[in-house]
Design a protein that fits this description.
By secondary structure, the protein is α/β, with parallel strands linked by helices. The protein is built from eleven helices and 14 strands. The two termini are 15 Å apart.
């Protein structure tokens, strides 16, 4: 069904595998589509498990100033970078989880994210280096226990692992830490955050901020942690490269991120293009 500019007032998009191609690039067509939305005064909001420092290089490349939803909804910032909502993990269960992680899954790389800081045990870890190359964010060495002792709590714990270990860790921490949200954002990445957090929750904050309704929102996504967002917004679109479970959660499916799926959908369904 054709959507009109009067119907959709705000657009939300995941980053990796959705906005970005498999080579972690923004295509010219996608950039043009985002800028066209901005010209029509329709906010385009990046919604990601990434930290702010890994999102802003993309907004700069798009050439559009926008609010962002970071850490899958745990941190919501307005266009000026002001905090609209922030939900961190509680100290006691986080401490216990990190201890169990080290004991039961020593082969997994743990990452501690808080506000716009990224802490790791070893910045030379090849998995950490790969993430830095992809996101342009910079990790710092730190002792997680010391961070917790000084009252620094995470918005997110990210686990980097081989696919089989990622599945095992997901099953274990979901079972033993029901107060946390535990979800894979890819076959090798496992995100752990407060159970109160979701991309849908972050979207609700921005809808209230702008005075828009759920029915006036559109979202794009490709992974499991996008499902709450895709089920929540009035219109939702999964990328062709998404797993079947994600496609089922969305109301529509577009081309893959490598085929300019976002711009193709906007051009094909918005009367304003």
């Amino acid at each position: 069904m054709m959507m009109t500019a009067d119907k959709i007032k705000i657009v939300f998009s995941d980053i990796d595998g959705t906005l970005l191609t498999s080579q972690h690039e923004v295509t010219g067509r996608t950039k043009a589509a985002v800028q066209e939305l901005a010209a029509k005064d329709i906010p385009f909001v990046l919604v990601s498990a990434r930290m702010p420092a890994a999102i802003y290089p993309i907004t700069d490349e798009l050439g559009v100033k926008m609010p962002i939803i970071s850490y899958s909804g745990a941190l919501v910032l307005d266009r000026e970078g002001k905090t609209l909502a922030s939900t961190k993990m509680e100290a006691k269960p986080t401490r216990q989880l990190l201890q169990e992680l080290a004991a039961k899954f020593p082969q997994i790389t743990a990452n501690f994210y808080t506000d716009n800081k990224w802490y790791v045990k070893d910045v030379t870890d090849k998995r950490v280096r790969r993430e830095m190359d992809i996101t342009s964010a910079v990790a710092e060495n730190a002792d997680f226990t010391q961070l917790l002792d000084q009252g620094t709590y995470p918005h997110k714990i990210l686990l980097m692992a081989e696919p089989e270990d990622c599945v095992l860790a997901e099953e274990y921490f979901r079972e033993h830490y029901p107060a946390f949200q535990v979800v894979r954002s890819s076959s090798i990445l496992l995100e752990i955050m407060s159970g109160c957090v979701s991309k849908a929750g972050g979207i609700a904050v921005l809808l209230k901020h702008y005075g828009h309704t759920v029915e006036e929102s559109l979202s794009f996504g490709d992974s499991y942690n996008d499902i709450p967002m895709l089920e929540y917004t009035g219109q939702s679109v999964a990328m062709a490269n998404a797993p079947e479970q994600v496609k089922t959660a969305a109301k529509d499916v577009t081309l893959s991120s490598d085929e300019d799926g976002i711009s193709a959908y906007l051009n094909g369904h918005f009367e304003m293009f």
